[in-house]
Automatic annotation (TrEMBL):
Ranges that cross the membrane: none
Descriptive protein name: GAL3A protein
Length: 225
């Protein structure tokens, strides 16, 4: 019987929601591994709505759960309804929605607050010693909720211009966590906390390399489960 995995989304679209390629990659790798997946998102208003063609905010109001339903093909539940006992692991794709809707990192950095249902979900899986997978910017959730944990968002220096958000690693260290430098096709496993992270689009890399890196994260999460 396949592992039961919860996937938590933050909207739909890189600039104000979940990064679509990351969410899709996680779902493909989970499907290939025979996992049973259920998708969740918090039932809250988005922090902002971005015109992805022009790259600028609009005056629209959108709901994170409703927008996430686009990615889930309508098969989605309110994050408040997630029961940790029904799952073996949880995975969070990245995208600016993580830093805007699941927490306030986009505005407050290391001083951010985490959405109550996101926080309680992370705490519940951690307390149950069930693995947590995070990619792109979503490792900051673990850094904020679990001081002392180990995560990666890629490199701590902008190597060859491929890691333009390398300063995130420093902010993670300031939270009392250990940042582990990894390449885009790798993931890091914090065995003590059962947290698996990979940098995904925190690195400017070809899509297939990001896809492969997310695959290593999913694989390690399922091993721990």
């Amino acid at each position: 019987m396949g592992k039961r995995v919860a996937l938590v989304l933050a909207g739909c679209g890189v600039f104000d929601g979940s990064e679509i390629h990351e969410a899709s990659a996680a779902l493909v790798h989970l499907s290939r591994a025979g996992a049973e997946v259920k998708i969740f998102a918090p039932n809250i208003e988005q922090r902002d709505v971005v015109n992805h063609l022009k790259g600028c905010p609009t005056e629209e109001k959108r709901n994170v759960l409703v927008e996430s339903a686009r990615l889930a093909r309508g098969n989605i539940q309110d994050l408040a309804e997630l029961k940790v006992a029904e799952f073996d692991a949880v995975i969070f794709p990245g995208g600016f929605g993580v830093a805007k809707n699941l927490c306030s990192w986009a505005v407050d950095g290391k001083n951010c607050t985490v959405n109550e249902h996101v926080n309680s979900t992370l705490q519940a899986f951690h307390s149950a010693k069930k693995p947590i997978g995070l990619c792109c910017i979503s490792p900051v959730l673990a850094a904020k909720v679990f001081p002392g944990c180990e995560v990666t968002v890629g490199q701590d220096k902008n190597v060859d211009g491929r890691f333009p958000d390398a300063e995130t690693a420093s902010a993670i260290a300031e939270l009392g966590c250990k940042h582990i430098c990894k390449n885009v096709n790798e993931s890091h496993v914090d065995k003590a906390n059962k947290i698996v992270t990979t940098c995904a689009f925190m690195c400017k890399a070809p899509l297939h390399e990001i896809f492969d890196g997310i695959g290593t994260m999913v694989q390690e999460v399922l091993k721990l489960a």
